[in-house]
Amino acid sequence: MFSRAAWVRILPFLVYIFFIIAVDLLARLGIELQALRWIYALKIGAVLATLAWFWRDYTELHRWDLGMPATAVAVVTGVVVLVLWVSLNASWMVIGAPDGFNPITGGRIDWLMVAVRIAGAALVVPVMEELFWRSFLMRWIDSDRFQLLDPAQISLKSFVIGVVLFGFEHNLWLAGMVAGAAYSLLYMKQRSLWSSILAHAVTNGLLGVWIVRTGNWTYW
Questions:
Q1: What is the pLDDT of residues 118-153, one digit of tens each?
Q2: Both ends of the chain: CA-CA distance in Å?
Q3: d(CA 132, CA 120)
Q4: Phi, psi (deg, nearest 5) at residue 33
């Protein structure tokens, strides 16, 4: 059903989802979430290992193809998405009641855990998600030979489907759609996956800093 080009973009995402499901099942079995926090490091390590294994297949990432103006646009987009992410939090904009990721142990913040969390969210997750959502899914909806499709040629149908699905991947579904739209437009306009990865990384990295400073652990 899927080509190798598809699978190498799907598998890192599936590894990530597997760990999310595993944590949920363990929590339902009565294990406290605080005791499961270490699984995040395992999850990020597994995703990183999968990305590294298939790295030679990600030819679009083998060189940095953004000039200074494009880099600046991506960074600014990431900051704007962050501001909207922490603002679009009305009750009707949220699905469920996330427990978040609380790094406080014995009344103190576990800074190693925080560092792993922010590094994973800013350096690994953007690569994994952009390869799946933008490089693969948005183009695959238009063509089975998606790797040959210029990002600028992605159809409105694929754009909308990708944005909606990306939004509902997150409990902050509206913020997720806004982020998905922003990253997708960057990818389509700049025709570089590095542009959406960079914006995504800026959002996630700054979000981690904001969470630690404010103590809003549910955003994790």
A1: 999 999 999 999 999 999 999 999 999 999 999 999
A2: 34
A3: 17
A4: -60, -35
